[in-house]
Amino acid sequence: MSALLSIEAIDVRYDKVRALNGVSIRLDKGEVVALIGANGAGKSTTLRAICGLARPVAGQISFDGAPISGLRADQIVARGISMVPEGRHIYPFMTVKDNLLMGAFLRRDKAGIASDLERLFVRFPRLKERMGQQAGTLSGGEQQMVAIGRALMARPRLLLLDEPSLGLAPQMIREIARVIKSVNQEDGVSILLVEQNSRMALKVSNRAYALATGRIALEGSSADLLTNEEIRKLYLGIG
Ligand code: ATP
Questions:
Q1: Pocket residue to mutate for ligand 1, from 13, 20, 45, most atoms within 8 A of Cβ
Q2: Which pLDDT band, with edges at 50, 70 and 90, does 235 fall under?
Q3: Does ipTM surpass 0.95 in this model?
């Protein structure tokens, strides 16, 4: 298996705060990899480093065999990495359809954009019903779907999801989990999933890493981690 994403021993600092210390993560083509950990462990910072929004002071990040540390955020999107940020950051006063089209801003293939939008509406029928509505009037779960749909409109090879289940009701969390699986299995998009909902993250992923205060504390197959004593105590609240 060749690594699609390879993060090697990166350090990230915010002034004096050492947010990440020697973090290494590997994601193979076709995988869903979860990154779990408590508040402030460095999960979002890891995603920000991949997208070019936080600069590692040491270590290296490669995508599809080529280094991407040092590239601008838009250059990284052009390579095939899209992020769904924590809190969704949709455009509340724009329609659902225009929000989705924003994800295709780097593309010039009009026919491809139109057919991807159609496919997206098959995946998210609720968004089709509401495509002319201002996105800010949607429920939290629907807004999360807009954010995921917008990222997919860039036709990424790697999708970065930052806490997609945050603030959502259990039924909607199950729906998001289904979407993650189908995007991975049907569209062949690899996914790096950051979650505080460790149970959901371990259920939808192949492998996982647990971050604790800026370091990788544990890693393994998600099935193994679901039954790991330490993970059950620290991250699943069992035992
Ligand atoms: P959360 O789930 O709360 O977002 P996280 O695991 O994603 O947590 P990060 O947001 O990556 O954690 O934060 C890692 C560390 O870096 C924390 O100690 C945090 O306080 C600090 N930090 C994050 N962003 C900044 C910033 N812009 N300036 C200074 N410190 C920051």
A1: 45
A2: confident
A3: no
Q: In the beta sheet, which residues pair with residue 219?
A: 209
Q: What is the pLDDT of residue 207?
A: 98
Position in ligand 1 atom list of the atom nearest CA 41 = 6
Q: What confidence tier does 122 reach under pLDDT thresholds 50, 70, 90?
A: very high
- Measured from the CA of 48, which atom of ligand 1 is nearest? 11
| CA of 17 relative to ligand 1 center, distance in Å | 9
**Residue 164 CA to ligand 1 centre (angstroms):** 17
Cβ of 40 closer than 6 Å to ligand 1, yes or no, is yes
The Cα 46–Cα 161 span in angstroms is 11
